[in-house]
Amino acid sequence: MEFFNFGCCNVTTLMICSGVAVLGLAAFRYFAIIGRSCNSKRRLDGKVAIVTGANTGIGKETALDLARRGARVILACRDEKKGKAAVSYVKEGSGSENVVIKKLDLASLASIRTFSSEILDEEDRIDILINNAGVMFTPYCLTEDGFEMQFGTNHLGHFLLTNLLLDKIKESAPSRIVTVSSLGHYFGSLDFNDMMWSKHYGSQKSYFRSKLANVMFARELGKRLEGTGVTTYSLHPGSINTELGRHLVAGWKAIFKPILYPISWLLAKTPTQGAQTTLHCAVSEEAEGITGKYWSNCSIAKPNKLALIDEDCKKLWEYSEQQVNL
Ligand code: NDP
User: Fold this and answer.
1) Looking at the DSSP assignment, which residues form a beta bridge with residue 175?
2) 322 has a pLDDT exceeding 60
3) Which DSSP letter does residue 31 get?
4) What is the distance between the alpha carbons of residues 255 and 257, in angstroms, rounded to a whole number?
5) Is 105 in the pocket of ligand 1 (CB under 6 A)?
6) What are the angstrom distances between the C-alpha of 253 and each of 141, 201, 249, 261?
7) From the CB of 136, is ligand 1 less than 6 Å away?
8) Residue 9 has what pLDDT?
9) How far is CA 137 from CA 20, 130, 151, 241, in A?
10) 274 C-alpha vs ligand 1 centroid, how far in Å?
11) In the annotation, is 140 catalytic?
12) Above pLDDT 90, what percent of the chain?
């Protein structure tokens, strides 16, 4: 009998503890991981938005939200097949027919130039440009033009794209340019003598550098556009369950697979949740008129202090201009 009571007590205690633990984890997930959402109800009828890397992940959900608000949305994707599937997804989810795919490979300056000249010919305006596409932790490889892949795609590709579209973005002001960076930028640094890692390549160091460059680019661009009505933003979207980890070494994936699901349930956002800070910067009234800042969790945040050195932001701009022949 004593044993039975003891057992009952144990079972009850266990159930209460499990309940408290599950509630605690859910609360942690809700407040610490998911965070704020873009709660702006702003409509975008008659506006044009471009989202790079919109065939999957954060970009696809960003495109869906913009289409729901009535914008004409251009999904700028390197893979036309995946891009077409995303167009169907966005059309279905938004009920809008004003959604198109355009081929853009950010690892090719020729592709960026072709994309931009077609957009300038075909579109009357560009109200929102979202520089979202990115690659992470790739093995050492080069873009078509010989740039290290992560720096070339994540930074230089978007740098050229933005500059080629800039006049039309200015004509459409008030307009916004949003560049998706990462928390990883805090670990980044620049070395103007070897920006492309010709020596001692590290896939993580290179990703972090490219994301630091995203923050510095948005800051310098914001300065250069002061008084034009075009505002710029860089941001960390959170940790999101997407395809971004595709270049992680297969061995690591195999080792972590059994624990990845519970970890990602607890620590990662869904792509829809991950799109919120991008959307907040792109459409919200709260972000209106604020330029050059770094955002996280739908709020202004403090970036890596290296990103606040104006001289280096300018130097990075000039270096990038030379690389892409602007
Ligand atoms: P995904 O890998 O799911 O999506 C990345 C997108 O970028 C894909 O559409 C991909 O196209 C596209 N892309 C890659 N290379 C090129 C290229 N050369 N030209 C055109 N498009 C290209 O990742 P996320 O949605 O997670 O990432 C979006 C952004 O968010 C990235 O900039 C990333 O650095 C940033 N970020 C993501 C975090 C996360 O936890 N997921 C955390 C912090 C930042 P394709 O499918 O053809 O490869």
Assistant:
1) 230
2) yes
3) I
4) 6
5) yes
6) 21, 22, 7, 12
7) yes
8) 67
9) 38, 22, 11, 16
10) 12
11) no
12) 80
Q: Which of 89, 140, 201, 207 is catalytic?
A: 207
| DSSP bridge partners of 77 | 103
Q: Is 48 a pocket residue for ligand 1 (Cβ < 6 Å)? A: no
Tokens of 171: 């004509």
ipTM: 0.99
Sign of CA dihedral 118, 120, 124, 126: positive
Strand partners, 49: 73, 128
- For 203, phi then psi, to 5°, come to -65, -35
- Non-local (6+) Cβ contacts of 243 within 8 A are 56, 57
Tokens of 129: 């440009």
- Regarding the beta carbon of 78 and ligand 1, being less than 6 Å apart is answered yes
One DSSP character per residue, 178-221 reads: EEE--GGGGG----TT-TT-SSS--HHHHHHHHHHHHHHHHHHH
Both ends of the chain: CA-CA distance in Å? 85
What is the structure's pLDDT at 27?
75
Cα–Cα separations (whole angstroms), residue 11 to 2, 8, 290, 307: 14, 5, 56, 54
Q: Which residues pair with 232 in a beta bridge?
A: 177
